[in-house]
Each structure stands twice: as structure tokens, then as C-alpha cells.
Design goal:
Layout lengths: L7 H10 L8 H13 L2 H6 L11 H15 L6 H8 L10 H10 L7 H29 L7 H18 L9 H17 L12 H7 L7 E6 L5 H14 L2 E4 L5 E5 L3 E5 L4 H13 L3 H6 L4 H14 L4 E4 L6 H14 L4 E5 L14 H19 L3 E6 L3 H4 L15 H5 L2 E6 L1 H6 L8 H13 L2 E9 L5 E8 L4 E4 L11
Parallel strand pairs: 1-7, 1-8, 4-5, 4-6, 6-7
Antiparallel strand pairs: 2-3, 8-9, 9-10, 10-11
Helix pairs in contact: 2-4, 2-6, 2-7, 5-6, 7-8, 11-12, 12-14, 15-16
């Protein structure tokens, strides 16, 4: 087979420029191309992750690219068919392209090893790219322009690194149905063993968990509502309940495996981390958030707040309060959290505050489509449920019955399409408060009756659920504490004697 000697000039120049030659395996590239030329089925085994730019030699890139084009067009890629597209020129030592193709095919090894060769080529290309990024970081740090801040340099380096991580996955593809069956049975077994017999992560809302089976891994769950309905409070309550219930066991490799509850990542694009923390402190301590903000608290209140803070410091709840980030940045940060701390639930508050990666000429509907598609892909990749909050259109306010519908989802039908579950938060009390008739009238008495019925109650309407029924779940809501909870029902109360 042609060896590294066929390319002496370029490698020699590279060695002179640097004391260390970037990692490469010319023989693996030659072996893979040889296998591909004698059996085009090799291409199907590697083409989902191996690209022409992963080859270190330019001639190898061209051979792989042209062979791929021929195979995808339903033609045969052989030394004879490739010769036409590669032209005639000397590769060194009097070796022509035609001779080189013939030697690749003549000395090729079996197709069985094609996947292993491709993985080696891919991994070495990744290492070379890491070297390039490292060199660029050093050069830019030495000679940074005046208007370039260190933060911008860090973000650019981070973006390039996570771009490698994103494109560095191979494997996947089809799996046998028996493997899928085993996964489904394992999930059912874990649900049977878990408290509450839930297949997903328990939200702490008993009736909701009963209807949904908990939050399912890989699901995109949209929580939608008009302003004032409490969708952020609901998402915060669910997220905190899950983080508070977290229990883990060490794995043999030293990492922690979640047994109950979960590690939560919360992207708070609207509220600051301090505002979110104040809400959670109010919910956990029972002291109204407006009192905490104003400092209007008693000594007893202070002790309750202190105790709540001590309990909360131990929970795996992580907040990112960066506003206006793109879906690409959110994806990179979520992957980092998963790798460094673990991740069992991701919350995004809210979708309309994210930006897409497309040009400004694109309309907002296309941007929302990109965002929801990206979140669904991220949920599948990380195998965690993602709670995405969304605004509703003003069409709700035009109707007598203010209960939201799927058609009210704002700006894009892709939200409904990409979501596995769509939940609407609705509080009738909010609307009734604004319709108080004149006191003393018959209408006022009727209004008071309706207010008593609606007071402290909220409806969580499951408008769509791929894996289960739709319907409405009633929850308790304490406005002062922005706290949702289980509604006290007669069947759940202790017996009276």
C-alpha cells in the first residue's frame, strides 16, 4: 500500500514549522478508502459521522467526497469511476492518482474494520481541531484587538469547543425492536419500584402526577398562560419540588446517579436569580414575598426564612439568569451542566425571550420554530424533560370563557407541533376580581358566591399529551406566596370520629 512516503514534502514542512506533528493516521485513512473502493457498503457504515474534512490528506478528502457523491447518486465508486473526477497529477515519487487508487484497492483490508478506522480518523481530526483552537486562544490573547474583551474571547472559544462536542457524536442510527422493548420494560420496572409508581419525575402535585405519570424523559412540556395566571410560579414550584426531593447514589465511576427527585437547571430569562430566589423563599417559609422585599417581617418570620434558606442551600437547583441568549447558547450551557453537575429537569422561562441563530430577515414564526425544534432535540439528546414556558395570544381576552386553547399558543403552530405535552395555567379568580359589580346589588351577591368558589383554586389544563389523557387538574393556589399545591379533598382528609 502507498505509505506516508507519498506525501514527504508537506509533512516535512509541517515538522519544520512545529516541533510536534499534529496527530494523524495516514494508514487508517488509506485502509478505510481501500475498503470503500472494493465494497461501497463501507460508506453506509461511516457516512453518518465521518466527513471529508476529517481526513488529514487533501487527496483522501477528495477521494472520500467524490466516492460519497457517486454512491449517493446510486452509482458505483471504484478506481476506474473515480479517475475521471480526480484528474491526472503527480503525488510525489512519480506516483499518479490512477496508480494510487489502484494501490488503495489492491492492498485494502476487510470491510469489517471500516467502522473502527473511521472512528480513529474522526477522533484524530477532533484532536487536531482542539490543537487549532488552543493555538488560536493563545494567539488572540497575545494580540487581541482593542475592542475585544476577554469575555468575548472566552465565549468564542467556548462556542468553538461546544461546536466540536456537538459534532463529535457517532453511533446512533437504527436499533432493533427488542432493544426498544427492553428499555420500555426497564422503565416500567423502575416505575413500579418508585414511590408513587410513576414512570417519570414526580412534580409533587399528586393529581397532576396521576394524570401524567410524572414528567417523562426526553419530553418537551410547554406551560402556557396569559400574564398573571402564575405560569412562572407553577414552573418554579414544580422545579423546586423535584430538586428538594433529589436523592442520589454513587456509581462505580464516582459520579452520582439520581434515585429520586432530580437535579434542576433553570433558565430565568425574565426574572433575576434574586427575584426567583425570593419567590422560592416565600413559598418555603410561608412569608409573603412582598414582605421579604420590603423588610416588613417579624422575628418569627425571620426565623422561618433562615430555616428555609438553610434547607434550600443543600438542594441541586441551578439558575442561569442571562437574558437574551440564543437557543445555541442555551444548548451549550445545558450540556455543560449535565456533564459537570448532572441534570434531570431543564426549565426555560420563557420561549419568547430566546433568540434563534438565523438572520434578522427571518420572521418571528420561523425563529420560534427553530427554538422549539432545538429544545425538543435537546430533550432527546440529554434524555431529560424540558419545561418551556410560553405566552398566549390576546385572543383569550376576547372570549367570555377565558380558558385557553391550543389555538391560543402565540406566534407559531410549531409550539403545539413540537411539544409532547401542552399545559395551560388558568385562574378564574384573577378574571372575577376585575368584574366586581356595585356592592349591594343582586349581581354583587352572585359575584361573591362565584369568588368564594374560585378563591384559592387554579386549573391546570392538559391540552395535549402524547402519552396519556388530556383534561383538567385542580390545584390550590396561595397568591401571597405564589405557591401551587395539592387541593384538599374529602377523600384525602383523615376520618372524623
Amino acid at each position: 500500500m502507498a505509505t506516508i512516503e507519498a506525501f514527504p514534502n508537506r509533512l516535512a514542512a509541517r515538522a519544520e514549522a512545529s516541533p510536534r506533528i499534529p496527530p494523524a493516521n495516514i494508514e487508517a485513512e488509506q485502509a478505510l478508502l481501500g475498503a470503500l473502493l472494493i465494497n461501497n457498503d463501507a460508506y453506509d457504515r461511516v457516512s453518518d459521522f465521518l466527513r471529508p474534512e476529517h481526513f488529514v490528506e487533501e487527496i483522501h478528502r477528495r477521494i472520500y467526497e467524490i466516492a460519497g457523491s457517486l454512491i449517493r447518486a446510486g452509482k458505483v465508486a471504484t478506481p476506474i469511476t473515480l479517475k475521471t473526477y480526480l484528474g491526472e497529477h503527480d503525488l510525489g515519487h512519480g506516483l499518479t492518482v490512477q496508480q494510487y487508487l489502484a494501490r488503495l484497492a489492491l492492498e485494502a483490508t476487510t470491510i469489517i474494520n471500516a467502522y473502527d478506522y473511521a472512528r480513529s480518523i474522526h477522533d484524530l481530526a477532533t484532536r487536531r481541531e482542539l490543537i487549532r483552537i488552543g493555538e488560536d486562544i493563545v494567539n488572540v490573547a497575545f494580540d487581541a484587538p482593542v475592542d475585544s474583551t476577554p469575555r468575548e474571547q472566552i465565549e468564542e472559544a467556548e462556542k468553538r469547543l461546544y461546536s466540536i462536542a456537538d459534532g463529535g457524536r457517532y453511533g446512533g442510527g437504527f436499533q432493533s425492536f427488542s432493544e426498544a422493548l427492553k428499555t420500555a420494560v426497564d422503565m416500567a420496572a423502575r416505575a413500579y419500584e418508585r414511590d408513587g409508581h410513576l414512570s417519570g419525575v414526580a412534580t409533587g402535585m399528586i393529581d397532576l402526577d396521576h394524570k401524567m405519570g410524572g414528567l417523562q424523559a426526553s419530553d418537551l412540556i410547554i406551560i402556557a398562560g396569559r400574564p398573571g395566571m402564575g405560569k412562572t410560579a407553577f414552573a418554579t414550584n414544580v422545579a423546586f419540588n423535584i430538586a428538594k426531593a433529589w436523592r442520589g447514589e454513587p456509581k462505580p465511576d464516582g459520579s452520582m446517579e439520581t434515585v429520586d427527585g432530580g437535579v434542576v437547571g433553570f433558565f430565568s430569562l425574565e426574572m433575576s436569580a434574586e427575584q426567583l430566589a425570593t419567590r422560592i423563599i416565600a413559598e418555603q417559609s410561608g412569608v409573603a414575598s412582598y414582605k421579604i422585599r420590603r423588610g416588613d417581617i417579624t422575628e418569627d418570620d425571620f426565623h422561618r426564612i433562615s430555616q428555609a434558606m438553610m434547607d434550600m442551600q443543600r438542594i441541586p437547583f441551578y439558575i442561569d439568569q442571562t437574558g437574551g441568549i440564543s437557543i445555541a447558547q442555551l444548548t451549550a450551557r445545558a450540556r455543560r451542566l449535565k456533564r459537570q453537575r448532572g441534570l434531570d429537569l431543564l426549565v426555560v422561562d420563557y420561549l419568547q425571550l430566546l433568540s434563534g441563530a438565523k438572520t434578522r430577515n427571518d420572521n418571528r414564526v420561523q425563529e420560534i420554530t427553530e427554538i422549539t425544534t432545538g429544545l425538543k432535540a435537546l430533550a432527546k439528546e440529554l434524555r431529560v424533560p424540558i419545561l418551556g414556558l410560553s405566552q398566549l395570544s390576546r385572543a383569550v381576552e376576547q372570549r367570555d370563557d377565558k380558558r385557553p386553547q391550543l389555538s391560543d399558543l402565540r406566534e407559531s403552530g410549531s409550539i403545539e407541533q413540537d411539544a409532547d405535552v401542552v399545559i395551560f395555567v388558568y385562574r378564574e379568580e384573577y378574571y372575577l376580581k376585575n368584574k366586581e359589580p356595585r356592592p349591594g346589588t343582586e349581581e354583587h351577591a352572585s359575584w361573591m358566591t362565584e369568588m368564594e368558589r374560585a378563591h384559592g383554586r387554579a386549573e391546570v389544563i392538559i391540552g395535549k399529551q402524547r402519552h396519556g389523557p388530556t383534561g383538567t387538574v385542580e390545584l390550590a393556589f396561595e397568591a401571597e406566596l405564589t405557591r401551587f399545591g395539592n387541593l384538599a379533598r374529602a377523600e384525602n382528609l383523615p376520618e372524623m370520629h
